[in-house]
Amino acid sequence: MVVVLNGKQVELAEEITTVRALLASYQLQEKIVVVEQNGEIIDRSRYENAPIADGDRIEIVHFVGGG
Hints:
The model has no long low-confidence stretch (mean pLDDT 94). The radius of gyration is 12 Å and the shape is globular. The protein is built from 1 helix and 5 strands, in the order E-E-H-E-E-E. The longest helix is centred in the N-terminal third of the chain and has 7 residues, at 19-25. It has one domain (2-62): Beta-grasp domain (Ubiquitin-like (UB roll)). By secondary structure, it is mainly beta.
């Protein structure tokens, strides 16, 4: 499956079928992130069941602390 992830076309492994699996593949599942899929922000409680489809446009923003 091919998606556009943060502006770049990426081919995902076939086991990556949900937002949660996508975050896990980038080791982001424990980080504070915001995920937008096709223009809609996905609530964190829906990551486990939010399906990813071929051609989706996904933006992942994660926060970096600092002082």
